[in-house]
Amino acid sequence: MAQWQEMQQLPPTHLERVHQLYTNAALPMTVRQSLADWIEDQDWQQAAEPFSSHARMLFHSLLTLLGEQQGSLGPGDEDFMLKHNLRKARIDLQAAFEEHPENFANLVANLLQEERCILRRAQAKGQVETPPAPSTAPQNSQEQEIQQRLAEFRTALQEAERAFRHMEDLQDTFDFSYKMYYMPGQDHSHDPQYAQHVQALQAKLQSLDRQRRILSLQEVVAQIQQLLGRSETLRDFLQQELSAWRERQQRSCLGAPTDTCLLQLQGWFTALGEGLFQLLQLLRAVGELRQKVTYEQDPLQSELPLLEKRLLEQLTCLLQSAFVVEQQPCMPNTPKRPLVLRTANKFCTRARLLVRLHDRNHRMEANIHIDRDPPKTRGFRKFNILTSSSKTVLVGDSPREGLVCDFQYLTLKEQKGGGSGKGSRGTNEGPLAVTEELHLITFTLAYAYCGLELKLETSTLPFVIISNNNQLSSAWASVLWFNMLSPNPKDQQFFSTPPPAPWPRLAEVLSWQFQSTAERGLSREHLHMLAEKLFGSKPSPESALPWTKFSKDGAAGFSFWAWLDGILALLHDHLKQLWKDGLILGFVSRKQERKLLKVKRSGTFLIRFSESMLGGVTCTWVEHPESGPPAFRAVVPYTAAELASLALPDIIRDYQLLAEENIPENPLLFLYPDIARDEAFGPYYSQRHEGILTKKKEYLNQRLIRVSSRQPHETWQTEEELVVATEDLETLQLKSGGQQPVSPGTVPGGGRTPRTPQAVSPGLQQVVAAVPVLPSLQQLGSGDLGVLQTGMGDLGPPVVLQLLQVGPGAQGVLPMGSSAIGPLLGSDAAELLLDNGAVGLQPSGLGELEGLPLQEPALEVGAGQLEAVELLPTLDDSAVLLDSSDPFLPQPEDAALPATASLFTADGDFPALHIDASDFQ
Amino acid sequence: MRPRGKAEGRLWLRALEILQELSFCDCTILSMSQRGEHQESKKKLEISPSETMKAEEESYKEENKEPKSEDWRPPSVFGAVGLYNIGQTCCLNSLLQVFFMNIHFTKILRRISVPVCGTQKKKNVPYQMLLLLEKMQCGKQKAVSPKELAICLVAHGVTMFVQYDAAQLFLTLWNLLKKQMKNPELVEKLSDLYTISVQEHLTCQTCSSETKRNSSMLTLPVSLLDSDSHMLKTLEECLQCFFRPEELTGHNMCFCEHCGKKTPFQQSVKLVHLPQTLTIHLKRFCFGRSAYIHKISSCLPFPQDLDFNAVLTEQQCQAYDNEKAAWQYELFAVVAHSGSTSYGHYCAYIRSLTECKWYCFNDSLVEQVSWDDVKSTYGHSDLSWGQTAYLLFYMRKHRQ
Questions:
Q1: Where does residue A684 rank: exposed (0-12), middle (13-18), buried (19+ CB within 10 A)?
Q2: Which of A50, A113, A229 shows the shortest C-beta gap to B373?
Q3: Residue B185 gets which letter from DSSP?
Q4: d(C-alpha B231, C-alpha B129), whole Å
Q5: pLDDT band for position B95 (50/70/90)?
Q6: SS3 sequence of A627-695
Q7: Best-predicted range by mean pLDDT among A129-138, A825-834, B323-332?
Q8: Residues of B labelled catalytic
Q9: CA-CA distance, A336 to A518, in Å (whole number)?
Q10: What stretches of chain B show up as alpha helix (H) in DSSP?
Q11: Which end of chain A, N or C, is surrounded by fewer C-beta atoms within 10 Å?
């Protein structure tokens, strides 16, 4: 829109300024109004120069135009006034400026400039008042500031260029006249004209000098000075943004969820680089101009070299910082753990020059070197980078692409021989472990653009080189420690004196590990527990953990990090979804666990990580006996080995607790704080293969479940895993067993009496706590849904838990060979895998079942479970008993009970099966 | 094609020599500037002080107060006007801007008496400064030329067209101002505005006899290096270092009258009084190991708000609580230098005391800037040509 039109639309406050501006101006507003477009189109600035013929021309054109305007007006009343005003203005102007039209040009130029100024201020104010449109992405103030400054920089640069062009014109005029008139070789003594010309020349020279001093110097040089000053601030800003990015990248290497996109930075760096290069060209052009005509004490003489030096320094600084490692070295197979490289494994790394300016004729080559200045440590391993260590920088055409050197498929090979190889490590052991030895890759790039040649350099973050996958965990610990604590991102000697980690920092980094592995970080409670574990009872914000305590020593035979990494691996492989969805409370101390569960109803459980073993997870639940303090029960932790065969949700779903009385039940009813088990874990249960009823089955389906059995005098119960054969899953109602209406407190206190079906159904926990009356349990079979029934007399083969449809009245009742429990009662963490073909006899007789060979019982002994080892013979015995090769297994009456008896007699560690009622109070 | 041959060049050079010679001669300059508006506005000014002046000078209706004729105030970009660089005058320009933007100074300047005769007028530095100030405030231009003032300074032995050290030129200018102000009251006001009072203590370490000496200074010349030549981190540290007692031992020992021999002394400077406008000189130019002077371009942050009570200890002050309570300062201006010791460029960052906005005065260019731009003068060890703060002007905060 034309300037004058814009002016008229200004808000009243600013309009007031316009009126003020024209109140005493020699140019009446009438003239400005009627010749608005023409006035704005002329170059008054140039006309304002002394000796300008342009000024006279413009002045007369204006007068002529005013005359025409006057003539074109009609005879109307309104026009009459205007006509008069125009006439008066014309006469006034002619009188005032006829002699010095350049003064008039100067006046108009200044007025126009002031107008622009008012407009600018009004617009700036308007922008403040109206917040930016919500459609644009919200930017922080720093980003806005940078954008604004870049825009200002461009505008100022254009102004400087315009001023320069003007100066150039001036000089050309001079050159022309000089060549025309100044001919010193000839004799001009009697040529009066020549003297005149020389005089004119001198006048021109004076004018030129004035121009140079006042205009060129001021308008160009001062503008460049100013631009440089402002670009320094801008570069400072960009530098800040870049270091923020570097920090973000470092954090994202450690697993923090941050944005490490470089596009915006690339845009900014390129814009500033472009501007500075333009400025450099302008400066060089000014320099050339100076060479054409120079004289003593030329102001440009001293100013220009200074400016150029300052500018080149700025550019160098900008370009140096613009060369960054976009992707830190990383093996593709461990994307979550960059900066750990294995010899002979492929890895990749990428550097980018954020200033996207390049010379198409100049091929840029990037080189990489590993450990260019290796630390002078004894035994420091040396490596070679295999495959090419140089690469031509590729230039993408789209603005999204940049100047990137992408090194893929690199491998490292250790330099052997010369006493520095690994073979000699034994004798020449360095002070640092392999996983504490830090290496660097340096990128170099020969950059050339617009006559500026630079060697740019950037380095990756230090990385650890391992030769075996089992070093990955401790190598990653080093990477964590370094990036968390090192003040110098290139310090290869960091681990000679690793500083301790302040707890708040460490907590954050640990949380990122969980975030990146299982998409959920650590909560405040988790961290509180970890802090307590590390620093004792009272963690303070000032607490700091030494490196050795983090990665090396540990009371349990493994370090804190090894323990945590074990959990991370377990989460990653088996529990990711549960952790992500917050079903695993995870880090809960025993004390805290009790506190949490104490106030919850019986059967409330939580899942936490084992503190005593690597990569273990366990469930703890609470039981409220009728009298006495609440009891807390936990199973021996499951490790990856167990979870590989049966997922945790399924374990929880089918978990069975066998009490002395062999009433199997699932004690896990409510996930802490108060979610019904199946509601919480339902979505994670594995799909069970549904049998097709019409089809005659060859096999019974099998299902693996976990069972624990309880010793009344033991501190806690044992656990086994059993495979349960199911014939018909449609009718299998174990699930509904979990949904039994269990309402603690409303349970009739029938705990100590022999079970009746009515008594069983409401609360299994009471059943467990009850006096064992094994034979009577038979009766349970009929009335209850989903009750795991232990049948004694009915079942022939021992050790087989079968989930069978007992009859129409007792769906999903699980009859159970009591002898199956017997031999296993004392076993701890033993796993028996029984084939589904194990001959199961069912009371209701579902037809002939083919007896299939029973697999050898697979026995897994949990680490550190001594009892299990001691039990081995017994189990073997039972295995013998279970030998499926004999389709006619002994009847329970004959075999199971002696087996049970023998178990307890054989193993003196176990108390006699004696139930004291007081135990359950 | 270019006129660079010897024969051609001679006339050429001659023409320029004439030009240069002329530029030192008043009449030529005047004739040259008569064409422009400078002269017109100057004439106008002599009769009518600007509106700003009127506003500022409500309480100072003094001798050169004359009736006002003009209502229209030029709406120049920021109310601030640039000064043309008439040949390496960036240092002078920066200092002049710092003087002119200081309303406490202009209050004093406006009260000077006008010299009677023409030659005196031309040679009077305060009067020429006032003229320049008026020219800046009333002209319609975005910048004016300090030519007359430069000529006046030349007459007092200040050579032009040479590189200046801003701290040195500041002292020279200030001394000229003080010397040529006739009114003793104004001289005192000027001294009050700028002078720092300190007490120097010399204590003999043997007999504990102490000599005190009061002295005043215009700037606090603080070193960027401590006594062990380590870089100091902040301005506060520099100030602390300045007021830290120094042991004079070895060949620095002084003669003690009581002991009758040369003894080790402790030398300390205690702060007595701080003026309204406090000038701090960062000694960025220093001798290295060789005799050659180099510039320290490393980063030295300075605060916007400076509380001397927090910087100095009890022992480093020699002032009453009343005086100390006033030691709350706010950054007012920064004179920054870019370039090397041999040649460089000066510009000034000044916070307008009326608008509380920062401006950058780069000779003829004046731009509003932000505190971030001022911060870019902290210095950067990687940029030896970048701009670094050289003189810092702090203004005492208003007492609550």
A1: middle
A2: A229
A3: H
A4: 39
A5: very high
A6: CCCCEEEECCCECHHHHHHCCHHHHHHHCEEECCCCCEECCCCEECCCEEHHHHHHHHCCCCCCCCCCC
A7: B323-332
A8: 90, 345
A9: 11
A10: 6-23, 26-34, 37-47, 51-56, 90-101, 103-109, 118-123, 125-138, 147-155, 166-180, 184-194, 235-242, 308-311, 321-325, 371-375
A11: N
Nearest to A625 by CA among A921, A423, A913: A921
The confidence score (pLDDT) of residue A784 equals 36
Going by the DSSP 8-state scheme, the letter that residue A575 receives in this structure is I
Q: Which residues contact A107 (CB under 8 A, 6 or more apart)?
A: A25, A26, A27
Q: Considering only A292-301, A905-914, B73-82, B240-249, which range has the smallest mean pLDDT?
A: A905-914
This complex has an ipTM of: 0.73
Closest Cα in chain B to A214:
B84
Are A380 and A430 spatial neighbours (Cβ–Cβ below 8 Å)?
Answer: yes
List of E strands, A89-171 = none
Residue showing tokens 């501007």: A275
Q: Summarize pLDDT for A488-547 with one digit per residue, the tens.
A: 888 888 888 888 888 888 888 888 888 888 888 888 888 888 888 888 766 677 788 888
Q: How far apart are the first and last CA of chain B?
A: 70
Q: Is the pLDDT of residue A647 over 80?
A: no
Q: Which residue has the tokens 């500022």?
A: B56
Q: Give which of A632, A541, A549, A548 is closest to A591, Cα–Cα.
A: A632
Calpha distance A870→A252 (Å, rounded): 49
Buried b (16+ CB within 10 A) or exposed e, A312-328: bbbbbbbbebbbbbbbb
Please say whether the beta carbons of A789 and A802 come within 8 A. Answer: no
Whole-number Å distance between alpha carbons of A297 and B17? 10
Render A373-424 in DSSP notation, one character per residue: S----TT---EEEES-SEEEPEE-SSTT--EEEEEEEEEEEEPPSTT-SSGG
Contacts of B85 in chain A (CB under 8 A): 213, 217-218, 221-222, 299
Q: How far apart are the first and last CA of chain A?
A: 92
Residue A854 structure tokens = 């029973």
Contact B15 A205 (CB under 8 A): yes
Residue type, A35: L
| Helix, strand, coil share (%) of chain A residues, nearest 5 | 50, 15, 40
Cα B238 from Cα B231, distance rounded (Å): 9
Q: What is the mean pLDDT of residues A182-187?
A: 58
pLDDT on residue A136: 44
Q: Which residues pair with A723 in a beta bridge?
A: A704
Residue B94 CA, chain-centre distance (Å), reads: 8
Kindly report which listed range (A173-177, A578-582, A653-657, B108-112) carries the lowest average pLDDT score: A173-177
Q: Residue A778 in contact with residue A794, Cβ under 8 Å?
A: yes
CA pair distance A628, A623, nearest whole angstrom: 11
- A327: CB partners within 8 A, 6+ apart: A348, A349, A350
- Tell me how many degrees the CA angle A399-A404-A407 measures, rounded to the nearest 5: 150
Could you tell me the two tokens for A109? Answer: 């130029």
* Per-residue pLDDT tens digits for A216-264: 555 677 788 888 888 888 888 898 899 999 988 988 888 888 888 888 8
Interatomic CA distance for residues B295 and B341, integer angstroms: 6
Closest-CA distance, B367 to chain A, in angstroms, reads 9
Measured between beta carbons, the chain B residues lying within 8 angstroms of A201 are 15
What's the token pair of residue B7? 């024969």
**Contact residues on chain B for A225, CB-CB shorter than 8 A:** 338, 345, 347, 362-363, 365
Say what the pLDDT of residue B379 is: 86
